[in-house]
Amino acid sequence: MSRIEFKGVLSVSVALAAALLVPPATAGHRQCLAPNGVDDTAELQAALERCSGASRRCVVSLCEGVFRIAPGRVGDFRGVLKGAGRDKTVIQALSELEVNDTLPDYLFDDPLDPNVPPWPFLVQFIGGEAWVRDFTIEIPTPEPGHRPTQGWLGGFIFELDGALLFTGVDPVDFDVDRIRVVAGSDPASFFNTTLLNGAFFQGRLFNPVDPSVYPVHPVTRRYSLSDSDFEGMLSGSPVAETLEAKVTIKNNRYRSGFAMHVQDASRSRPWVLKNRWETDFVGVQVLLNVDGEPSERNSILALGNRGSTESPFEDFGVGVFFVDPLDPAREPGARR
Q: Which residue in 44, 113, 145, 312 has a CA-CA distance of 20 to 30 Å to 205?
């Protein structure tokens, strides 16, 4: 049984032709990648790959305009992905996207395997050190008769699982600043949305050295999300399967089902600071031991948050909600 310490005060009223890899000698003359007006997937993918394993900080700079893309993935990205501003640069998902539909779950496949379609996230960072900032990601309402994806989890789910994914096996360092994630409505969706999660920091199940039925590979080191805006998805900025990770979620605004949730953190320190939310279910949801493995001690700080939650469902409509399936008798399982 894990032990959570909940400290602090919670006030609740209920980002490519090609992008430029800039060497120091030409750092004063930077170019940006402009959208082609049709499908920018190949250009953006090529730009991201130029920063894979970079020995010096690499910059992918996006011009003003709308970039229409299918899911892209990059391993060991080391640098910056930046737009001209979240009111100027928009990365927009195409519809009917092909994503990984492997059973029992895409999470059991290597996310960088070129022989399988990408995981159901629009922009995916697998390992590395990345700074992502100053653009909007939009998963728009599909045209009539279309869905956001061609389906995954056996064709059962059609919403994108996330707009941004941050994961990895080795220790990672991700900073996300001044982004906006907007999901459109989808009447065919149970949740009436095109997107389940906004910016997702999560460990992955793909772990070839783990023979267990549920081969968890947690993500570790550091993740920061600040000054960003999430609207229309089920959960704004979930954090899941972490180990010894320092996570800071600060100065964000949420208009979503959940503002964020923390799931199966172990020896981690999630700080939730000065966020604002208008949610349908819960502000911050803490889920431990969902994978069946005991989550070790965490220290969760929620300080200076404000928001409102409204829900017709019992046990929702609250600011902070704790769940521990291994020991339901001790829910909420926290010391405030």
A: 44
